[in-house]
Amino acid sequence: MQIALALGSGGARGYAHIGVIDELTARGHEIVAVSGSSMGSIVGGLHAAGKLEPYCTWVETLTQRDVWMLLDPAFSGPGVFWGRRVMDRVAELLEGVTIEELPIPFTAVATDLTASREVWFQRGSVAMAMRASIGIPSVFTPVMLHGRLLADGGILNPVPVDPLLGTPADLTLAVSLSGPHNSRTSQQPVSETADSGVLGEITGRLRGVMESEQVRGVLDWWQSRFASEQPGEPRLEASDPAGPGDPDATASPRSLEEFDALPRGLRTSDVVSKTLDTTQALITRFRMAASPPDILVEVAQNAASTFDFHRASELIALGREKAAAALDEAGL
Fold first, then answer.
1. Do the beta carbons of residue 111 and residue 155 sit within 8 Å?
2. Is this structure's pTM higher than 0.70?
3. Over 80: is that where the pLDDT of 246 sits?
4. 185-220 pLDDT, tens per residue?
C-alpha cells in the first residue's frame, strides 16, 4: 500500500519516527511522500534520501556525554546552541543532495517568526531545510533566509499533514509526538556515568558568558540530566486535571503563603519545555481536526524529554510498537 507520511515535532521523541518507518517497510508498505516538522524533518529527509540506516546506526551509539559534545554554545546568539555540529554530521550523510533530487517527494516545515506563518521547503538543500525546521525556541538559534527569521516548524504545525494533501497515495499516516501522557512511562533518562571534569569545564565556560536567567536555567537542566536520580527525590508526573465539579478547580488561596511549594529541582527550562509540549499538543489537536490523517500514531509526551537524545534505541522500539498497534487496528 502507498503511504503519505507526516512526521511531527517533539525533539528526541522523534526517534520514534524511525521505528514507525521500520514497521511500515517491514509490512511491505511504500512511503511515496513525506513531510516533517523539526525532528520529523530530520528523520523524514534522511529516509527520503535513503540515508536513514547509517543515521540510525550513529544515534544508537550516542551516550549523554556524546550528546553534550555535539552541542555548540551560541555565546552571542539568540539561543543556547547553534546546532552546527549536529547538522554537519547529518549533512555528511546527505552528501549535498537537494530536495529536487530525492526519489521521494519531501517537505520540511519551518516557521517564519517575522511574518508569523509557515514556510514549506520543497526545493533546495535538504540539510539546510532541516536546519531551518529544527530551531526550538530558546534552545537552538533561529536562522535567517531571504529576510525571514526561521524557527521550529512545530511552532505552527507540529504534525504537517497539509503538505501531503493531494499526494497520490492510498492513505495518509501521521505521527504525533504530543500524545496523552502515559503514567507508566518515566520521564527520567537512563542513569549513566559521565566525565565530570569535561562536563564541568564546558558548563563553566557556558555559564561564564550566558547572562539571561532562561539560558542559565536551560544549562542547569542539561547538567541535571547527567545526575543519577536520588532515592526519594520527587518527580514531576502527569496527574488528572481538576474537573468543573471539583471544588479545588477554581478555589484560589487567600494569600501567597498558601500556595503549595514548587517541586524540588524544577528549573526554568523545565517550565519552557512543558510549555512548548502543552502548546504543541493543543495546536496538534486543532490541526488534526482541520486535516485529519487516515491513520494517527501517537507517542506520549512523557515517553521522553525533548532533550533525551541519548535514548535512540528505546524510542525507536517504542515507535515500532505504536505503529504496529495502529496498523493492526486499521487492518494493515
1. yes
2. yes
3. no
4. 444 433 333 333 433 443 444 444 344 454 455 555
The pairing of strands 106-112 and 117-121 is antiparallel
Residues of the chain above pLDDT 70, percent? 70
Q: Annotated catalytic sites, by residue? A: 38, 152
CA distance 221 to 203: 11
Cα dihedral: 176, 177, 183, 185 (round 10) = 130
Place of cell 569535561: 198
Report the C-alpha gap between 118 and 112 in whole angstroms: 6
286 to each of 27, 136, 189, how far by Cα in Å? 31, 21, 31
Q: Which residue has the higher pLDDT, 166 or 288?
A: 166
- pLDDT value at position 98? 95
Alpha-carbon distance 119 to 132, whole Å? 9
Could you tell me whether strands 143-145 and 2-7 are parallel, antiparallel, or unpaired per DSSP bridges?
A: unpaired
**How far, in Å, CA of 299 to CA of 18, rounded?**
13
Q: How many CB atoms lie within 10 A of CB 83?
A: 23
Backbone angles phi, psi at 111, to 5 degrees: -120, 125
Residue by residue, what is the 3-state secondary structure of the chain?
Answer: CEEEEEECCCHHHHHHHHHHHHHHHHCCCEEEEEEEECHHHHHHHHHHCCCHHHHHHHHCCCCHHHHHHHCCECCCCCCCECCHHHHHHHHHHHCCCEHHHCCCCEEEEEEECCCCEEEEECCCEHHHHHHHHCCCCCCECCEEECCEEEEEHHHCCCCCCHHHCCCCCCEEEEEEEEECCCCCCCCCCCCCCCCHHHHHHHHHHHHHHCCCHHHHHHHHHHHHCCCCCCCCCCCCCCCCCCCCCCCCCCCCCCCHHHCCCCCCCCCHHHHHHHHHHHHHHHHHHHHHHHCCCCEEEEEEHHHCCCCCCCCHHHHHHHHHHHHHHHHHHCCC
Hey, which residues does 112 pair with through a beta bridge?
117, 150
Identity (one letter) of the amino acid at 30?
A: E
**At CA 35, angle to CA 31 and CA 39, rounded to 5?**
110
